[in-house]
Write a structure and sequence with these properties.
Blueprint: H1 2-21, H2 24-34, H3 36-63, E1 69-72, H4 76-99, H5 101-105, H6 107-114, H7 148-151, H8 153-158, E2 162-164, H9 165-193, H10 195-202, H11 214-221
Antiparallel strand pairs: 1-2
């Protein structure tokens, strides 16, 4: 029970820091400390970088906790679960490709600033983004889920052949954080994109759990909304 509690608290601490640094207040404080232009150019890179480093620290900490096996699957079943995890990795990279890795990481803004060029607009959230024609780029995994990058963590977390107590605690808190984070992202996207995002909602693309219904998003991209039945 101690392992579960410690792993859960550590994961909650990671989530709290990650969320706090994503707020407008944190960005305003950073702008006061380093200047608005430098902050605009570097904050996203800093945010992604600290997220990766703090997640690595969380993994190292949890790996040092005692563990007890909840279940272990061997043979073909284990291979099937690993295949599901691999599919989650491909799903994640497909979503990043749709958003644009440089745009998602903030590297495009940092690069433009270093070259003395106009910086592109920062992403509102983890996609979908507005295309040049004013429509949402609801392609790739965004045809099946409105928050595919967050969903990608679910198969990576849960499709493990060896479930331990510390992994179970991390998975439960981490999954809840991904869902709550998606709700927060959706509110930001609706505020930023207004009618364009409302049309995306009307296309009935699922909020979090994917559904293979690309015809709905295809109709949306073409400017036609499917009729309700």
């Amino acid at each position: 029970m101690r392992t579960i509690t410690k792993a859960a608290i550590a994961t909650l601490a990671f989530a709290a820091v990650h969320s706090a640094l994503a707020t407008r207040q944190a960005k305003k404080i950073a702008a006061t400390l380093v200047g608005s232009e430098r902050n605009d150019a570097t904050y996203r890179v800093f945010y992604v970088g600290q997220g990766l480093l703090s997640f690595a620290a969380l993994v190292v900490y949890c790996a040092g906790l005692p563990k007890h096996t909840v279940y272990r699957i061997r043979g073909p079943g284990a291979l099937l679960l690993r295949a599901g995890q691999l599919a989650g990795v491909f799903h994640l990279f497909a979503g990043l490709r749709q958003v644009g890795l440089k745009r998602w990481s903030g590297a495009d803004r940092l690069q433009a600033w270093l070259r003395g060029l106009d910086m592109p607009n920062a992403p509102v959230a983890q996609g979908p983004e507005l295309a040049d024609d004013g429509r949402l780029g609801a392609d790739g995994p965004y045809r099946w889920s409105r928050h595919p990058l967050n969903f990608s963590g679910v198969p990576l977390f849960w499709l493990t052949p060896h479930m331990t107590t510390r992994r179970l605690a991390f998975n439960a808190v981490g999954t809840a954080y991904l869902v709550l984070g998606s709700l927060h992202e959706e509110a930001r996207l609706r505020t930023a994109y207004g009618e364009a995002y409302e049309r995306y909602l009307q296309s009935r693309v699922p909020f979090f759990w994917p559904a293979l219904r690309p015809r709905l998003a295809d109709a949306l991209t073409a400017g036609r909304l499917p009729k309700r039945v």
